[in-house]
Amino acid sequence: MTTLPTMPLADWRESKETLHRFLQLVGKIRLASSARRNHWWNVPYHLTGRGLTTRPMGGRDGNPIFTIDFDFVAHELQVAVVDGRAVRFPLVGRSVAALHAVLHRTLCELGIHVEIAHDAPFDLPDASRPFADDTEHGSYDPVGVTRYWQVLSWVNLVLEEFSGRFAGKISPVHVFWHTMDVAATRFGDRVVDHPIQVDPVTREAYSREVVSAGFWFGDESTPHPAFYSYTSPEPDGLADRPLQPDGAEWLPRNGSHLAVLGYEQVRLADDPRAAALAFYESTYRAGAGLAGWDLDRYACEDGITDPCLNPAGT
């Protein structure tokens, strides 16, 4: 891939809405079948050389160890068991209901039994409709999904490089199926005391101060793909801090502020990677600096924390 592809939301909106529900359908299996991790790190997908993986799960609940992988090269879904058995089936031409049926039938045939509390979308307009009843969403354009996969793979490596500049506690680079974004989150040391009425998902995700960096493919409120960052809790004066490169801006969102840089601006930059990294670095320094983090203590050059090593290699 010599240049980043165009990715206007309007060109693949219907496919994106279908894929989003595919990701949630499988994501809920991951949620039900994995050991819980701090900040819900067990829940998201990780990238592979061909798509997304749930990572191994099961093995502690009477089920065999298994994975479910999205292959965005062949546009197939694969269920694989640690004993070597594997079943693949196409994603093209299936509604959400059809994928639900074949996937759960396949799990049963492989001896995998999963209890899902709410087998329906999360925080989507049709959240009250079970996946098994969704025959509306069945558009899957391989061209649009291939572009999604190309952009996702590129942003993943940018976030990996950015993550290597931080020596503190940091999440993996992972893909959240509930919002269909890819992100990496840096954590500070300060505990955040949320009121008891705050939902348990939020309390666990934001139990420490964080500065999160990510990318999402557009939604109704922001109908274009964009790089983003936020600080939680948001320190006073955050939206007054300068951002890089030119064109990045702070946008009000749900009572706080989100730093946003449009994908198209990065795509057309002379050095897209440098533009994206400059954005993430400026948002981190704005949020962490105002929150009182020790930026020098957390600094890490080229992913090296060993003081005996010269990062320049000389």
Description of the molecule:
- There is one protein chain.
- This protein is α+β, with helices and mostly antiparallel strands.
- 30% of the residues lie in helices and 20% in strands.
- It has seven helices and eleven strands.
- β4 and β5 form a beta hairpin.
- α3 (142-163) crosses α6.
- The longest helix has 25 residues, at 9-33.
- It is globular and about 55 Å long.
- The model has no long low-confidence stretch (mean pLDDT 95).
Main attributes of the structure:
314 residues; alpha+beta; 6-stranded antiparallel beta sheet; 5-stranded antiparallel beta sheet; 11 strands
What's the total count of β strands?
11
Question: Runs with pLDDT <50, length 5+?
Answer: none
Shape: globular
Number of helices: 7
Strand content: 15-25%
Calculate the mean pLDDT score and round it: 95
Estimate the helix proportion, in percent: 25-40%
Class from helix and strand fractions: alpha+beta
SSE order, as H and E? HEEEEEHHEEHEEEEHHH
Q: Tell me the Rg in angstroms.
A: 20 Å
Give the N-to-C terminal Cα separation: 32 Å
Largest sheet: 6 strands, antiparallel
| Strand arrangement in the largest pleated sheet | 6-7-8-9-11-10
Q: Can you summarize this structure?
A:
The protein is of the alpha+beta class and 314 residues long. The chain has seven helices and eleven strands.
Draw up the topology in text.
Layout (H helix, E strand, L loop, with lengths): L8 H25 L12 E2 L3 E3 L12 E6 L4 E6 L4 E5 L5 H14 L32 H22 L10 E3 L4 E11 L8 H6 L2 E9 L9 E7 L16 E5 L2 E7 H5 L4 H19 L4 H4 L16
Antiparallel strand pairs: 1-2, 2-3, 3-4, 4-5, 6-7, 7-8, 8-9, 9-11, 10-11
Helix pairs in contact: 3-6
